[in-house]
Amino acid sequence: MFLRRISLHGLFYLLCGLLGGLYLLNIYGILEQPPVHEEAPSVNKQRQLAVRQAMQHAWHGYRTYAFGKDELQPLTQSANLRWGNWSISLLDALDTLKLMNMDKEYHEAKQHVRHIDFTKSLDYYDVRVFEMIIRALGGLLGAYELDPDPLLLAKAEEVGRTLARAFDTPTGLPYASIDISLETVRGPYRICLAEAGTMQLEYKKLAKLTNNREYWRMAERVSDVLEAGSRKHRGLYPMDISVLTGQYFESDYSVGAAADSFYEYLLK
């Protein structure tokens, strides 16, 4: 759903209307469902088992046909390297494997992390900065929170240091993608809101764990630029912004794709 020039008052009344409608539905029992914690423990155990089995099935397919590659292509039972051959599915799943007590799978995946060189990428693939921050850097930091192995933090810093090159712009906003095989950074100058503002959690956590304040300042600078450029706009932020000037383009307004994670990170 796209919203144009919605005012703060309009957004307030819209939210009030939605909440009021949900309240009325609840009064009349339309939304009433028994709380999960009041159901029989055996039911919850079955649900837990079903979720774990789904993860085991997905991981088995990836391990069999695409281990160490970026993605499994299930229909052809093959792998692709569309994220620069950084084993992105494996990194994204690390903390989930640990949370689900899939210890054998987790340790195998962690050992593979040791051999990933995050300073290199396939020459013909640009690295998508937004995706690498939330999946590679986020996956490694999440796993480190559950398993404080120095290897995980060292690799997280390697990712963070490599991607930090994308923020070497006149405004401090990151390029959407960079070719890390080149000495000079390049990338599209127009980026979406999600690409600009979905990095604070990972880089601030990395700053705290490594005692490197530069990562913190980098994240703060992005937030400052986004806020400064939005002052003439009311309500939602425009969806596109210039890396060179920090000014927003006259574009659609949305809380959907290309903007959703920005608002998610504001809450977090």
UniProtKB/TrEMBL annotation:
The protein's annotated pathway: Protein modification; protein glycosylation
GO molecular function term, any single one: calcium ion binding
Stretch forming the signal peptide: none
Entry's EC annotation: 3.2.1.-
Lineage: Eukaryota, Fungi, Fungi incertae sedis, Zoopagomycota, Kickxellomycotina
Pfam families referenced in this protein's UniProt entry, alphabetically: Glyco_hydro_47
Keywords (A to Z) from UniProt: Disulfide bond, Glycosidase, Hydrolase, Membrane, Transmembrane, Transmembrane helix
BP GO terms, sorted: carbohydrate metabolic process; ERAD pathway
Cofactor(s), by name: Ca(2+)
Protein name as catalogued: alpha-1,2-Mannosidase
Domain of life: Eukaryota
Transmembrane segments: 12-31
The keyword DNA repair belongs to this UniProt entry's keyword annotation: no
Species for this entry: Coemansia brasiliensis
